[in-house]
Specification:
Blueprint lengths: L2 H13 L4 E5 L7 H10 L7 H5 L1 H4 L2 H4 L5 E8 L17 E2 L8 H19 L5 E4 L7 H7 L4 E2 L5 E2 L7 E8 L18 H5 L17 H6 L7 H7 L2 E3 L3 H4 L26 H5 L3 H7 L9 H14 L7 H5 L7 H19 L1
Parallel strand pairs: 3-8
Antiparallel strand pairs: 1-2, 2-7, 4-7, 5-6
Helix pairs in contact: 1-6, 14-16
């Protein structure tokens, strides 16, 4: 395919709202399969059984769709207009990951991918495409590096010299042979800020993550009670964690998201723990309609809020936790009893 089509494709992607664009081959990251096997073999995927079940496809983009000849990788900026670490000091309030403070990015990104994909089909008779946003067995991060969008930093997330840490990834697989844009190299150098800031020591070594200790995993993917040894480390983070992203020096090049649907809703920017803990299922669903938070359900959400209450050092929240000690969800009840115990000790001290 001509370089002209690649240029036009880039222009179309940027016009649709994407922040960066790159192209690689489906087999451009051959090391992925081995790294994934090691990750799963050491049990670092925790309860995410789907990673092991689909390892054949996840480890090789070429195996996922053998007919694909090119992968178009797209980045979408969701940068905040403030420092997310500031919320951690507000102990009677909740810290919600920046990406989850408004609309579910899966819906926004997928619609844009489809529009770009349809345009590509119109330009190339007989072309086929498949679009992916985080929910299919695709290892987007190695492909993003191979396509030149950024590199996987020591915290294993992708970092960009143009966008910093704040961007989503989407992929369009196509049967077209498109011109590759070239890969990116590692620019982390000797920096280890992302490793040192992690409150639960989730990084066994640079470029390695143990999801079982990661706050994003614990507050979103993990079912049931969180190990007591990790609860203090959660602080007031009730959905996700931005620490390792927020501290990255490359964010000096980041900018606020242009897409208004990524701007934080006022009621989800440091909401009061007291108000979140008392939500019933109906109220929870109403508050988080259209948000990625909705998918974890009221039980897991209130569990997280109660851990934050236990860490708040605010004896005034004791009554809130006591009211949930007999909740019908045993995980919530367990979290409430733990929170009460932490706050009672605070009162005695």
């Amino acid at each position: 395919m001509s370089a002209g089509l690649t240029r036009a494709l880039r222009e179309k992607a940027l016009a649709e709202g994407f922040s960066d664009f790159g192209i690689c081959r489906p087999d451009a990251a051959p090391q992925t399969a081995q790294r994934l096997a090691e990750f799963v073999g050491e049990g670092r995927h925790g309860q995410m059984g789907w990673m092991a079940e689909r390892m054949h496809w996840r480890g090789s983009a070429a195996a996922l769709w053998p007919e694909a000849r090119s992968v178009i990788m797209l980045a979408e900026n969701y940068g905040p207009d403030h420092d997310p670490l500031e919320a951690l000091a507000l102990k009677d309030r909740a810290a919600i990951s920046v990406y989850a403070q408004n609309k579910d990015y899966h819906d926004v990104v997928k619609k844009r991918l489809k529009r770009v994909g349809r345009w590509l089909i119109e330009q190339s008779e007989g072309a086929e495409i498949k679009v992916f946003v985080d929910t299919a067995p695709v290892m987007e991060k190695p492909l993003a590096m191979a396509a030149g969008l950024g590199w996987q930093g020591k915290h294993t997330n992708v970092v960009s010299r143009r966008l910093g840490s704040w961007f989503f990834l989407g992929a369009i697989f196509t049967t077209l042979e498109l011109e590759e844009t070239g890969g990116e190299v590692d620019h982390c150098g000797s920096c280890r800020k992302c490793l040192d800031i992690c409150p639960t020591d989730a990084f066994p070594a640079p470029y390695q993550l143990d999801a079982r200790r990661c706050i994003s995993y614990l507050t979103i993917e993990h079912h049931g009670p969180v190990d007591e040894s990790l609860r203090k480390g959660l602080g007031n983070r009730i959905y996700g964690c931005d620490d390792c992203l927020a501290v990255c020096p490359w964010n000096k090049f980041a900018s606020r998201a242009a897409e208004i649907r990524y701007h934080g809703r006022a009621e989800l920017q440091s909401p009061r723990l007291r108000e979140l803990a008392v939500l019933d299922d109906t109220e929870f669903r109403a508050l988080f309609s259209g948000s990625p938070i909705k998918r974890i359900g009221r039980g897991r959400f209130v569990r997280n809020v109660l851990y934050a209450i236990g860490n708040s050092e605010d004896a005034g929240l004791l009554g809130v936790a006591q009211a949930l000690c007999e909740d019908e969800d045993e995980t919530v009840a367990d979290a409430a009893r733990w929170a009460c115990n932490e706050l009672v000790h605070r009162v005695k001290d």
